[in-house]
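Request:
You are asked to prepare a plain-text protein record giving the amino acid sequence and the backbone structure tokens, at your earliest convenience.
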Amino acid sequence: MSMLDLSATALRHRIGTREISPVELLEAAVERIVALNPAVNAITATDLGAARAVARAAEAAALRGDELGLLHGLPTGIKDLHETAGLLTTYGSAQFAENVPVRDAAMVARVRGEGAVILAKTNVPEFGAGANSRNPVWGATGNPFDPSLNPGGSSGGSAVALACGMLPICTGSDTGGSLRIPAAMCGVVGFRPSPGLVAMDTRPHGWAPISVLGPMGRDVADTRLLFAAQVGMDDREPLGFPIDREAARASRPVDLGRLRVAWTEDFGQIPVGGEIRTAMREKMAAMGHLFRRCDVLDLDMGEADRCFDVVRAQGFVARYQAEYARDPGALGPNIRANYEIGATMTLADAAWANSEQTRIFRRFQAVYQDYDLILSPTVPVTPFPWTQLYLAELDGLKLRNYYHWLALTYFVTLVTNPAISLPCGRDPMGMPFGMQVTGRFRGDLALLDAAAALEAAWGRIEGLGRPRPDLAKLATARPDLAGFATHRSVHPQAVPLRA
């Protein structure tokens, strides 16, 4: 077994006890990226020289017995929406194909400060719009269980890199489901924390709570390790509130037999494929005995779709107004669609949406008077080909717009409760099934504790454990995912890694 098959928490422990060298771990990661990335195209820009220098310094610090950070010596991938000082950051846009920031985003600085060895950026849709990780600079990312299929997005490259064991630590972000959806489609964990816990210093609307940064991992413990490194108060984050970092990292025991669980296939109104509905019922039947109560959720989510349209569009108008006025054609179709939706809206639309969001929020929180967790599928369909930009129709129903198929996650985004997608066996097509678990308002730590208990219990129930991709099969696959790119970066950091 390769050291890369160990969890991030195990790797970090062995670095601290000097059983594993950060230099050797980095070289193992490079070797696996060289072997597997051609099949999935998850890793984009890299700076191997800088990473090797950091790894050598990390090794020296461990040998000296220095105090080590939470991520000390761990090779790390940063989602290509987040600025990395000295490392190419393109946002998946031809406009930024040669962009090398001079500073780190606040979250990246925290991760780097905890000893992470930042090796690579991970692929995204253009500007993170959509749940299909393809763009004109790097091309498409393939699902690790079948590279011809969509891995989800927008944190698709991070999810794939984790599922393939190319990197033990990867960051992500989430507006309508960008941490949770790729985690579900790739069989890993994606945690959307409460807004403000991870500083997002580049958000144009600082007081808007729908976009967050957060962690991904192959299991809950790894996800918590990264989360603990990411959190912290920052004067640039107006929604911030303090959280105990040690409590964020370390799980506390949870007796599932004391928990009251409500579950839903569709929150009463979301289009969900028949196969996913069937799978959800079967999985709830297999785990229902674990809980004190396990009931079908009865909840009015109001006009959540229309509300999300407006709330989301406000952010796109703020971010892309100047670019759209200069040259609409320079923006990808998803970005243009979002901007154009927002440009036709009025102040009355915005006022209504903010009021409707508040009404939905209050009804949603009332559920937690009777229940501790809400369970739902994370995505409504099995992964479809990445050549299909988005899902336009589901079981004969024409969907409202290019992101309507993400409603299972963006409904939860609207209420701002923390939510985590956990691997829960496979769907009827043999692909990973992600279970979205939503906790109480600002109940991040209790949710993470419950997630660890669920993960352990599901691992003991046939058909509910985490699925793994066939890495040996991937090593021989050579789909032309990068060939989808219509604009290639010529920056030296865009050259594929060589062992």
User: Anything to note?
Assistant: The longest strand covers residues 419-426. The chain has a mean pLDDT of 96.
